[in-house]
Amino acid sequence: AELKKASKRLTCHKRYKIQKKIREHHRKVRKEAKKRGRKKPKKDPGVPSAAPFKEELLREAEQRKQKLEELKQKQKLQRQKEHEKRRKLEAKKNATKTKEKAEGKESSGKSKAKTNKLLGKNSKESFCRELRKVIEASDVVLEVLDARDPMGCRCPQLEQAVICSRGDKKLLLVLNKIDLVPKENLEKWLNYLKKEFPTVAFKSATLMKDRTMEQPTKRPAHVDLSRTTEYFGSKCLLKLLQEHGRTRNKPIQVGVVGFPNVGKSSIINSLKGVRACNVGLTRGVTKSMQIVHLDKQTKILDSPSIIADPSNSALALALRSIIDTEESGSADVLEGANAILNYCSKQQVMMRYCIPDFRNTEEFLTLLAQKRGMLKKGGVPNIDSIAKVLLCDWTGAKISYHSQPPESQRPPPYLTDDKAAKMQEGFNLKTLEEGNTTTVQALKYPSPASSIIFQSAGMTNGIIEENKMIEKASEWENMETSREGEEEEDFTESDDDQDDVEEDEMDVTEVTRKAKLGKQQTSSTNSEKQIAENKTSNSLSFTLDKTADEDDAYDFNTDYV
């Protein structure tokens, strides 16, 4: 039989006896402390009412106290950053050690692994190869543009490849996500783009709850996920493609191309009326060419995303490149978030995210992480995760922002007047104009005040040829290795900066201790020395330099004589 555990219950007599002993012990400790002469800390007497310039003294003392608090907060954030850097470097070292061990064991199969990686389905070389297949097999190419930044979604290499290709290939522009921009801005972009290529206004279907559509009063009994939500512009585009097929007197193949997250697969689902292609918020969901039959005369080819050239601006790479949120480095994600915030109105961003004023991108991400509860162990804001969320917001259908078209019409050099006229041949432009008008009138749009004003970075260069992609891959590897070396240098420099900050804090406490009313001359000389020392330190974002007059502020740690 198992023995039962001893009970922890006590008799009342024993419990009261223990409590009495504790009280006696506390009394004894207080008595000894009294004998040793431990005194209570003196209260701050404050500034007497009869003192001259009382308000100025109080104001200066409050400013000094506030600066010290800001300094402590700055040091706390810096310690957190260094802790994160140290943790990441340790993780990288462990990863390299395990990698070296694995390479030592599998040195023979290293070359095979490299070739398999290049031929893998998720590799960027494979994306270029599949995209080239779609362009060559298509009679009509639909370049999908995000209505919030149409110019940034245009790829000059793709347009030039279609225009200069053999055969009578046509290029159509599809302006998707039109429900996320103001109506006036949409009409401006349609008038600008239709002068270069035939342009279709489109609102693709999504499986999310759409706020721009009127919701049914009755609750549906069953929701079929294979059926998509309401969409606009599909009838106009279908009619345009069918009429173009009749002019050719043969079945046509339509390729759908564009940068990540512009809605290529969603447009195909809208045209088909059923969820034929996989869609998602993550970039690069479509890995290879997919064929969808619309009718007997029309086939649609879904393609992987265009690979953005690394020579593009930081903004273009943040919004248009295929970023794997799990494998991408924190530096790339933070650089992308910084580029987005620099190209839009600060006041509108503060209103959209309900965040107070911020000085830089890091402070904005810290405030946003605290607001959304994205914290690590110890309450440290998860900057990397919130930066990835910000990028997903701006590439997905969550944030309403708009950019203005160029003031003057300047077509690219590869698009001459003859080629522009050739691109419009075979399409009924009158039907297209009427279809766009009905689509624009059928939707609800955000007001210009609620939509964030965004400054576009212009056309985004892409890589279409597979050979160029392989050349760029070696450049990316060299960039990554150089970045790792820079991070290690930054870590060593940050240790030196921390020592400087600690010295500055000690100097500030010395300055405040010497600020007494009876010793004005000595305090002025010391403050001048302190100013010279503080000028050398660049780690602080604000200066604590004080003149001799400012240093005469009342110190609350001393008695007023």
Automatic annotation (TrEMBL):
<feature type="compositionally biased region" description="Polar residues">
    <location>
        <begin position="519"/>
        <end position="544"/>
    </location>
</feature>
<feature type="compositionally biased region" description="Acidic residues">
    <location>
        <begin position="485"/>
        <end position="508"/>
    </location>
</feature>
<dbReference type="InterPro" id="IPR023179">
    <property type="entry name" value="GTP-bd_ortho_bundle_sf"/>
</dbReference>
<dbReference type="InterPro" id="IPR027417">
    <property type="entry name" value="P-loop_NTPase"/>
</dbReference>
<feature type="region of interest" description="Disordered">
    <location>
        <begin position="477"/>
        <end position="561"/>
    </location>
</feature>
<feature type="compositionally biased region" description="Basic residues">
    <location>
        <begin position="1"/>
        <end position="42"/>
    </location>
</feature>
<dbReference type="Pfam" id="PF01926">
    <property type="entry name" value="MMR_HSR1"/>
</dbReference>
<feature type="compositionally biased region" description="Basic and acidic residues">
    <location>
        <begin position="53"/>
        <end position="83"/>
    </location>
</feature>
<dbReference type="InterPro" id="IPR050755">
    <property type="entry name" value="TRAFAC_YlqF/YawG_RiboMat"/>
</dbReference>
<dbReference type="InterPro" id="IPR006073">
    <property type="entry name" value="GTP-bd"/>
</dbReference>
<keyword id="KW-0547">Nucleotide-binding</keyword>
<protein>
    <recommendedName>
        <fullName>Guanine nucleotide-binding protein-like 3</fullName>
    </recommendedName>
</protein>
<keyword id="KW-0342">GTP-binding</keyword>
<dbReference type="InterPro" id="IPR030378">
    <property type="entry name" value="G_CP_dom"/>
</dbReference>
<feature type="compositionally biased region" description="Basic and acidic residues">
    <location>
        <begin position="91"/>
        <end position="109"/>
    </location>
</feature>
<keyword id="KW-0175">Coiled coil</keyword>
<feature type="region of interest" description="Disordered">
    <location>
        <begin position="1"/>
        <end position="118"/>
    </location>
</feature>
<dbReference type="GO" id="GO:0005730">
    <property type="term" value="C:nucleolus"/>
</dbReference>
<feature type="domain" description="CP-type G">
    <location>
        <begin position="128"/>
        <end position="309"/>
    </location>
</feature>
<dbReference type="GO" id="GO:0005525">
    <property type="term" value="F:GTP binding"/>
</dbReference>
<dbReference type="Pfam" id="PF08701">
    <property type="entry name" value="GN3L_Grn1"/>
</dbReference>
<dbReference type="InterPro" id="IPR014813">
    <property type="entry name" value="Gnl3_N_dom"/>
</dbReference>
<keyword id="KW-0539">Nucleus</keyword>
